[in-house]
Amino acid sequence: MRKIRVLTAKLGFDMHNRGIIVVNKALRDSGMEVIYVSNQFPEVIAETALQEDVDVIGISCLNSATGIELMAKLMNILKEKRLDNTLVVFGGIIIPDDAPRLKEIGVAEYFPPGSDLDSMVNFIKENITMG
Amino acid sequence: MEAKKSYGVKEKESKEEFTTGSGIPIKRIYTHEDIAGLDYNRDLGYPGEEPYTRGIYPTMYRGRPWTVRQFSGLDSAEATNKRYKMLYEMGTTGFAIAMDDASLNGFDPDSPEAEFEVGVGGVNVFSMRDMEEMFDGLPIDKISTAVIQIIHTTCPHTAMYLAMAENRGIDIRKVNGTSEGDPCSYGGCFDPDILPVRQVFRLCGDLVEWCAMNAPKWHPVSFTSYNFREAGVNAYQEIGGLIASAVAIIEEVLSRDRGLGVDDFVPQLAFHLSAHNDFFEEIAKMRATRRMWSKLMTERYKAKDPQTKRLKFHVQTAGSSLTYQQPLNNTIRAAYQALAAVLGGVQSLHVCSYDEAICTPTEESAILSVRTQQILQNETKVTNTVDPLAGSYFVESLTNEMEKRAWDFFNEIEERGGWVKVIETRWLRDEVINKEVCKYEDEIRRGERRVVGVNCYKMEEKPGNITYFRPDPEIAKKMKEKAEKLKSERDSVKVGEALAELREADENGENVMPAIMKAVKAYATLEEINDITIRRYPFVGHSSLFYGLKGKRQ
Questions:
Q1: CA-to-CA distance for B286 and B351, rounded, in angstroms?
Q2: Which among B475, B466, B458 has a CA at the least distance from the CA of B78?
Q3: Burial readout A63-102 (b: 16 or more C-beta within 10 A, e: otherwise)
Q4: DSSP β-bridge partners for residue B350
Q5: Which residue of A56, B93, B437, B475 could cross-link A6, Cys pair, CB 3.0 to 4.6 Å?
Q6: Nearest to A13 among B101, B193, B445 (CB)
Q7: Is the pLDDT reported for residue B195 higher than 60?
């Protein structure tokens, strides 16, 4: 079976990248192929996802309070590019009010600080549809 | 007298090895033998005397307290002005501007790139007008301000503050404050995938050079090993890197050969360190840093002026040590870290707020941080004597060990071609920072590094038991309108001329600061200036943030 391909990125200008560095390593250690593109605008994340034909997009942003609108923009662009089937996961601080909205815009799952790395790996393995 | 070798060897201990936060093995006890080679005059000296291990001033806090400088900025200049006035009334003695992501990255609020980034993480500052509004009614001739920004906006943002002061009739030769923007003040600055490394070093050098001649009380750069530490390195790597980054800028300025020697500009350089969880290690780190700096200036640069050899520093308690879980515990962490900074001889201090792992601090949590400092200054009596831990077998031994390891790290950077080179080759990012951060997090995961509320003493928590700060939802729209209004009202001929002059200075390799000062006074914007000084440069990295959606400028 081919490796699961994951695109990971920091959303917009947020430079808090400790979380994504650790997650990238955990995903690679679990056998996935990780393409990390550092900080990018939503347009570029979506375009890269299309070109790289990834199964999963993992987005890291410090805080949902500030990242949620950019996240909504990303989800819209993904829809336009017919990438709605790509599994999208989000990591960062989640303000409680934002949790339902993240799901509404199509984020499959979110992982707040303190999330278990194994649970992320397992979530991806259990929920992707390999094309 | 020889220490008893058999001391307590049979006693059982709770674990096999005790180590510092950076993994340095720690013995059960320390004795005079651990500091057998210590020479008081050579290695410690009196406070205010070389090598400044015990502090840079003879009287330290008996003479003057450290500056209570809380970093803050809220979406708009008006909101920030209100917060600053509140902090000033609370007794804060210095400001530090936290800017939003759009400003830090050099985009104006009417640019598409800034659409969702205005007001995120701080205040939006895109022209001198924002500085005017932010400091309206505040005594900037009496209080010092740190302009916290990233290297590629450091010149325009500093110019906006100084030009604002000048317009208020204040002589900029007397204006006190700091520009934070050193090449490592931004996670991304270690990352050649985000910024063109050489050009940002040049701009930082320009600011240092210009301030030496025009704004002698201004610190043109504060070497921010704080951010390096936050990115993931350990305590001795933090200070080894700090020295290496300062050396890079010193070499940049000296290489221009325009008449400045180290004693002409180094006294203005400032430093910004972290205070993390390991109490004694942090104190030892700060003492070692001062000694290293004094040695470096004396031995390598043959400095004559004592000011050149004195390392002044600001400390911020470690944001990365704060936990999202049980957030009130962060108050206690920050208080211990602040105490370490004070025992380490800090000049200016920011205490993180308990809610910083969750959101921008609310007014309530910001006040508590100020009070934490005031309790230290007024109640604990730790300020009564200078460097109270000097002579401790353990602290002196650990100070020596920190210095040794930090020099080893510094020397490794030098052998690899220096700070600029290790950034460009990605060695610093891939082999040092990312490896350290994975190791650190792995230790937490395996329970070897205990974090209360995260991997031990966990509780069921109800979310929402603290107040969350949210930026004004209308802020992006308001700032966009403000930018459009400013651009329609200003004298566009004057702006055009100033920007043309800037372009010429930049292309001729002249110092860009005089032209930037002129441009900001004409209300040229941040993005207009950065389009000239930054976004025309070749860039090999792959982040789309750099040129933005418009691509490379011509």
A1: 17
A2: B475
A3: bbbbbbbbbbbbbebbeeeebeebbbbbbbbbbeebeeeb
A4: B316
A5: A56
A6: B101
A7: yes
* Residue B464 predicted with pLDDT over 60: no
| Three-state DSSP state, B340 | helix
Do the chains contact at A65 and B113, CB–CB below 8 Å? Answer: no
Name the residue facing B437 among A22, A41, A93 (closest C-beta): A22
Chain B residue closest to A117 (CA)?
B445
pLDDT band at B94 (very low <50, low <70, confident <90, very high): confident
User: Of all residues in chain B, what percent carry a pLDDT higher than 90?
Assistant: 73
Q: Give the chain A residue nearest B434 (alpha carbons).
A: A21
Which chain B residues are within 8 Å of A17, Cβ to Cβ?
A: 187, 231
Query: How far B367 CA sits from the closest chain A CA (Å)?
Result: 22
Q: What is the mean pLDDT of chain B?
A: 92
Q: With CB atoms and an 8 Å threshold, state whether A13 touches B543.
A: no
Phi, psi angle pair for B478, to nearest 5° = -60, -45
CB burial string B38-47: b at 16+ within 10 A, e below: beeeebbbeb
Neighbour count for residue B353 (Cβ, 10 Å): 31
CA of A11 to nearest chain B CA: how many angstroms apart?
10
Residues, chain B: 554
CA distance B517 to B160: 7
pLDDT confidence tier of residue B249, bands split at 50, 70 and 90: very high
pLDDT (tens digit per residue) in B466-487: 667 677 778 889 999 999 999 9
The band of B71, judged by pLDDT with boundaries at 50, 70 and 90, is confident
User: Could you say which architecture CATH assigns to the domain A5-116?
Assistant: 3-Layer(aba) Sandwich (3.40)
- Rounded to two decimals, the pTM is 0.92
Token pair, residue B370, equals: 């100020």
Q: Which of A16, A18, A36 to mutate to test the interface with B (most CBs of B within 10 A)?
A: A18
Cβ–Cβ below 8 Å for B102 and A25: no
Could you report the per-residue pLDDT of B496-542, keeping only the tens digit for each? 999 999 999 999 999 999 999 999 999 999 999 999 998 888 776 77
Residue B358's pLDDT is 82
pLDDT for B421: 92
B259-297, pLDDT tens digit by residue?
A: 999 999 999 999 999 999 999 999 999 999 999 999 999
Nearest CB among B113, B230, B359 relative to A63 is that of B359
A–B: how many Cβ contacts below 8 A? 93
Measure the CA–CA gap between B239 and B274, rounded to whole angstroms. Answer: 10
Domains of chain B: 40-445 (3.20.20.240)
- Asked whether the beta carbons of B102 and B49 are under 8 A apart, the reply is no
Contacting residues of B for A117, CB less than 8 Å apart: 445
Asked if B193 has any chain A CB less than 8 Å from its own CB, the reply is: yes
In angstroms, the CA B353 to CA A70 distance is: 26
- Which parts of chain A sit beneath pLDDT 50? none
Residue in B337, B342, B343, B341 with CA at minimum distance from that of residue B320: B337
Nearest Cα to B436, choosing from B226, B231, B273, B239? B231
What are the chain B neighbours of A12 within 8 Å (beta carbons)? 101, 116-117, 545
User: Confidence band (pLDDT; 50, 70, 90) for B129?
Assistant: very high
Is the Cβ pair B358, A93 closer than 8 Å? yes
- Nearest C-alpha neighbor of B269 from the set B374, B181, B335: B181
